[in-house]
Amino acid sequence: MHHANHFYGHAHIMAEYAGLEFPPRIWGYLQHGWNILDGFAHGTEFVDGMPLFVWSDGVRRRGWSMSRRNYYVIGSPWSYLLKLHPDLAKPAPNAAGTIFYPFHGWEGQHVLGDHGRIVASINQHETGPVTVCLYWNEYRNPEIRHVYENAGFRVITHGYRGLYWRKTDEDFLLKQLTEVRRHKRVASNRLSSAVLYGASVGLQPGVYGDPMLLQNEHPAFGGQARIKRMWPEMDQPFVPMDLAKAFTDTELGNDYLASPEEIRELFRWEQN
Amino acid sequence: MTASETQETLSSRITLLGGEMLNWSDLDRGPGQGKGPFASPLVVPVLSQLLNKQTTALIVGPTAPWLLERFSDLVGSLDIVVRSWPDAHALNLRLNGKPVRIFCGGFEKFAEPAGHYDVVLALDGIPRVFSADSADQPWLDTLHRLRDLVKPGGRLVLGVANGLGLDALLDADASVKPPTDDIWPTSSEVELEAPPGLDAVRAALTSAGLTTEQHYAVYPQATTTSLMVHERVLSGHTGDEVLAVLASSAFAQGFGAHPVLTDPRRMAREMMRHGTGLNLAPGWLFVTNTGTDPAPESFSYPDALITDNLDHPYWAVVASLSRDEDGQWQRSLVDVGRSTSNRASGHLQREPARLAGTVPTGVLLEEQFLTACRHDDLNALRRLVRDYAQWLHDQAELKPWTDPWSSNTGGERLVLPGEAVFATFENVMYDGKNLALLDSTWNTTLRVPYEIALTRALRRFGYRVLAGGLRHPWPSGMSPNRLTVTMASMVGVTVTPQLLERSARLEVELDGQQRNNTEAGDQQLYFELQTMGEQPMGAEPGQPRGYREALATVGRLSTELAEAQSQIVWLDQTVQLRETQLRKEHRLSDDIKNSMSFAIGRAVTAPFRFVFRGLRPIFRAMSPGAK
Amino acid sequence: MNGMGDGLSGSEVAPVEQPETRATLLGAEMLNWSDLEPADARPAVGGPVALELLDAVLGEASTVLVAGPHALEVVERIAGRAASTDVLVRSFSDGETIAERLEGKQARVFAGGLDRFGPEHGRSSYDVVVALDGVERLVGPDTAGLTWAVAVQRLRERVAPGGRLLLGTANSFGLDRLLDVPRPPRADEWGRDVGEQAPATLDAVTDVLAGTGLATAATYSVFPDVTEPVLGFGGPASGYDAALVARATARRHAAGPKLADPYRTAYDAVAAGLGSALAPGHWFVLGDGTPLPERLGMTDARTGELVEERLVAALRADDHQALRQTVIGYVDWLQAQDHATAAAATTDNVLTDGTSYSLLDTGTEAPGGTHGQLAVRHLARFVNRAMAAGTRLPWTAGGTPRALTERLAAIARLEIDDSVWETADTAVTPQGHAEQLATIERLSAELAEARKQVDWFEGQLDKLRKSRSYRVGRTIVNPLRTTYSKLRTRLR
Fold first, then answer.
1. DSSP 3-state assignment of A156?
2. CB pairs below 8 Å between A and C: how many?
3. What CATH number is attached to the domain comprising B99?
4. Do both B264 and B406 map to the same domain?
5. CB contact under 8 A, C449 and A49
């Protein structure tokens, strides 16, 4: 499943950082994506007393107020990836254009029309070449792909599935990094991990267009409206770079990165 | 709540500021879940004077809905800032039709212009105006912001909790239980709480350009207040008996059910007698103005305000007290809601009007008993019991009486008037000559014979002195029942087991009626009185009760925990090993996906989950090993 | 020494025959009693700070009255410096002891109640009147109704113009009240009227003292108790002062059950500015004269606060970042010091302002070990103290300091040598009752979690076992078996 991919990618990064060849089980739970609540999906069941490793202190505070305990803020795996590849942590010399991550809420009758609207909003704001990065399942849908290709955009996907899924899992974040840094801007119709990642390596972020709300987006999450209220400064097509940096530093936990020894102690990893 | 409902309510009077707490309610905290909202009826008489139909008011911090309703009725417009979304929604419903606007989120995002309000109320204080999403704001900065929101000539009413107040020193729960959900992690560099100590708080108010008009100390806790005493009374260090009694009973009510380290009534009493009532108060309430040309007004700010029965508001009475030049205290009733009306339930009645008048002089009878006990003064004890019994006896009349708990036909007995049944030691003042009820508002239609009432009063005292571990002249290992027998014998009353039993029933009747006990509650109280009455009680000298057990428990739990943790380590290693083996042989089936390594992977964030929920059929079709 | 009383003025009563005693008996003296060596009562006041204050006050003083129970060393110090000394005690045997000690000096001893110390006894005025024990113990049970204010006035009347009065008062709501388990009254607490005791608040006391007409030259809050204080200071307190008071209080309350942790309670009280309000007692110097030290028993105030306090503040706020930064800063500094400094640099002995560090006092013993080992040991000690004080902990900690120490050591990139745990891995047992209760709460919660984890793991093992049942294979079994037994022996 996709999230298992995600996990392997993250765990491998942490293992490499901690000086291990492969990641043993992590003693605890690792936050895998940018989260505006307690770090984990709504309704996640944890084993009591196991540590929760999250990206930022805000997540920890919210989680505490939701009766979760045993948080440890270590920053995001992406940040550790950047530490492992410092030469890649900035835009490439010939970086150009925008990479756009479309979000689409649900499957329904208006799928293609919605993607069409996204194309229109991209054209409204972007000059220069545009790369559109789709989720692998959308990517495999030729109709959706054509909407973007017909608009003259380069269409890619970060995650592959198939027979080799294990191997590519380990590198998918690295692949994302190499791809993203080829651009000058990163944008989406929603503020999300992908936008964060792009901004963290110096791309100018932008959020615009219809966020494509889900029908029953759970109010406990508050959804997109809540995000816009919390971080209004990030809800614009051309976010000033200093604001972007402050935001990504906080949300990716860049002040909280741990040493390799600490990671080994926290995750209960013996050096192998 | 569906999206459409949200839209509807959002369009009306609720403005979302950002940082709203969605899974949190300040109004709906259960017991043991942290403090509830500010809910004292005592502020109503004090603050109503400041509010009228021309007033534009702002109130921040968790405040009880009924209080908000009261304020909204008094003012021209009321803006309310809450941090909890469920609370905002609930308040919106409750305050339908009132001139309010509700703002929900972290207070730092509240953007109303400066100088906008006639009155700003922060009764709960500053710390709880912020949400878990708020960046940590220094208390002083927020104070300035609140001040800025006040119009020139307007007022800021601020509650400040005292970190080293008597409630904090006493409350085993606060220092003992793990921190509750509202004590989320903060920065240790930022001063989120008020500066420590009254002097520092006063200096802060002055430096913010605020002039203190009135200053009350509140007890027994900053959020649940049943006693407010004006600073002018406490700064004259007279160590007044009446103040000591008031404080003691406020703490008794507030801490009755809590585990505590030392007897709260004694500590409260001593705090007052030693003149430290102001500095050790659990909290303070300041009425301040912005210092520019205060208009001369004739508001009255009583020396003290008291209420009771915060847990059973049906019975509550609110009174204000003032002390005259001779040091005598006068009580008068204050009307908050229906607090001046007569109450009755079953055989129990309360007539608040009887509270009005001079507070009887003297020292609390219970205190005199305790002092005599402390000094091993059996003579004094004898005298006190005799005086008390005589006083009770003098009020009794010969009347026909049937035992309600037996089938015997009656005869005539000396029966007390209803109010004398409530003359237990902690409710009687004695100046050496005259005994008088401190609170004579209670009455009962039950017919209680003199001996039963006497036995009950003596046994209550017996419990107090023995269960409190207080010093007494009798042999150690006394039980409350035996103590009752001993004391009653000093006045020639023989206390039989039947008499003890009847007095227990009386206790249950009175207590049950007041607290609206269920039948099970009644039975439990009866059972406890009867069995614990027989228990020898005595603390070991030099140790708080339970000290040794606590030490032993700490040791035992540490060992058990260490064993469990070793077990976990072994299990963890074993599971890892087997998983590795099985993975190498591609033996992992779907069942195994629930193991730790994979389970972690499942804990994924919201956006992905939402995006893929609708696509699950595709997913399943695509994943290897599909069922 | 003269055994006879100094004349009886105009009395018709036949003179009472005075027994042969060294001291002059005044009447209302306590027989079968000693304040110098009490059986079940508070001892006489004394200690280094008393001597320090007296040295500063006595100066050129020639005539001194020592009123009330003062330790022999104090009395001797005074008699050694003053031109003439009169001593007033309530205990007969004490009077004899003192008289014997002061033989050969210009000294007189009076034994009896203050109310019997009439104009015919002693001098009409003295350069210095010393009553550091207060006035309550100037009378015995035979004297009733002598209020505190009147007693103070009696002493004040004996102060010569330009002289001084040293007066001590006990604070009935001081730190010891918050720490000590309430105990039955001692033999010297036979019960008095409220008026016979010192007024309860500092303000009330200063009001009465203002009425004496003598200016208050200094007020010292004394710690850790009124009998043998080791610290006295007047002004607002710093983190450094809080540390000194906390240490003294902890030492004083080291033995026996307490209601709350002595060190932590004392530190928090002083740091919150309540040092004066909660001091066990106060000493007043009334009357102008030679300049007086601002602080007794204490060196000059130093800036900064203890590393331990920064760590505790971080724990209380659950501020992980501050915790990490403080630990890293401290350990980095420690590793750059010489061995003796590093050995003495426990977290409660190092002052810091965030960037620079200094020792509070240099240690005497120097345990061996590398700097890394010393750092780990200091961290373990800190964790132990924090847990015993019931401080909020950010993570599951267990019953011993081990888990949290390992975490902090990892943060500081220190290797932990398991030999540390041989002596240090014992259950934390708080001295304060409040902290015991807190620890029980925490351990119970952690135990419940641990049990859930055990259940979950056992469930996982079950699933794994079941899945193997499909396979008939043998190869997997043996290697695993031997690995299990290796595992078992390796684990603690």
1. strand
2. 45
3. 3.40.50.150
4. no
5. yes
